[in-house]
Amino acid sequence: MGNRTAIEDEQVGRLEQMIRDTPAEVDLTRRIMERYEQKRSQVSREAGSGRRRWHKAAAAVAAAVLIITGVAGTGLISPAAAEALRQIPGMKRVFQLAGDLGLRAADEQGLYSEPGVSVTHGGITVGATAVTFDGTRVSVGIEREAVEAGASVQAQSLQEAMTDVELSINGQPLNEYAPAGSSIGPFLFPVPDSDKLVLEFSDLHNQGGQVFPEQFGLGLHFKIAGIEEPFLLDKPVELNTRDNLVLTPSVVRNNGNVKIQLDKIELTPVTTNITTRLELDGMTISDMHSSGSSIGFDLFDDQGNKLQMLSGNGTSATGSSVLVQDSRFAPLASVPKSITIKPYHYVYKENSMSEFQLDAEGHVMVEYISGLEMTIPVAEAGQ
Question: Domains (ranges, CATH) in the chain?
Fold first, then answer.
């Protein structure tokens, strides 16, 4: 950020104002939930029998991801704002286009690699242009273009056209790193440029899975709508950050039949990750979600600034009353004296358990849960 010119700062300021002035659609929540139902293969699976059933516990997280990632990430920005994005120097890079403040930080600080791998089928080239791995998540920038005369990309966005995604690490299926009965499903995040997206996944080592190696070969196998031959991209991945701060406070809060334990805080230049253990008394996790009482988390620094939520995943066995969950937020600019975690319930529209209430600015309304808030000293623990 330090080498950005005053003109670029002014452009960014204008862009931010346009984004703020772009209204969200009234039915945003319903569209998000419909997209979740269509894309359930992108979130963690629930432990269960032979049939592949997907984690209801991830529904609230997936919705929060698409809502809070930012207007730019949802594709709801105005054409003028999208064009402004393209005109800012460096903003054509996929990590800068993303609504994810952590990926923008990775781009600005050089915490990524450029694998430069691509494959062409049917006159369409799809390549991996940027990869970052901070120990909490792997993010891959994917881009598509027509490279042969007469070839053209479909009207579908790359996110819509990209199907049957399979990942491997050092030749082993990605799910070899998942805990028994679960899976690691990648998220496909859109950006304002419909020919680009961010593919992201995280290991489940905080939930009983294996830790990803610091260096590994990532295989990405997928199809593009309208092209019969599958695409395969092989790219190296390595840990791009060092000296990440990890705290294990094990702080517990109780409220009625709800118990929340904060197991871990991980601070990296790209991500702030918290690992929580939610236990219910007299209710299963599935019951909690079906009753519309799902619990999410807001995270604040010591100055009261709320961090942007990025993504998350959770693991809960069938019929269990325990949910272990990772919630990922934007990085902190510096190590704060403390962070505050505020658990909340989503506020639904009257007589609906599927549509959230939105405030005047189009944000999902939440209700903080009394007695579950926790403030954790950080700076002292990190010294």
Answer: 245-382 (2.60.40.1640)
